[in-house]
Design brief:
With 152 residues, the protein is α+β, with helices and mostly antiparallel strands. The chain is built from 4 helices and 9 strands.
Length: 152
Amino acid sequence: MGNAMEYIAKNRVAFHDYAILENYEAGIVLGGAEVKSIRRGTVVLKGSFATLSSSEIFLHNMHIAPYPPARSYAEYDPTRTRKLLLTAKEIRGLIGKLKTPGLTLVPLGVYTKANKIKVHLGLGRGKRQYEKREIIKKRTVERNIREALKHP
């Protein structure tokens, strides 16, 4: 097994909506039933975001489905705010960057590494609508060129 990374969930929408400037790896504070539920792959990152509050990073709106065999199943909140674990140096660097207008911290994926659950964060700048359209046009042209070269 070793240090192999295995993605459990990816936030594909984030790559469409944001230009990712920097990447971070963060641990996450979870309960036992949440860990089991994530390992089953029942996590949704769409619409989630991270915020800075009193020199700590918190993840909001990440949906982790309840784990049915858990005893505390009835009072479980699937989208509760969860604390992210980053080094003090990384947090200090993020404090200044997150004060910049237009920059936000977006979760890009959840994966396992050395039997731990990690969150892949990206410092992103929101894309404008015309930027998204240009990227889609560029991809279409590239795909058409590849198809033309493949089948002359």
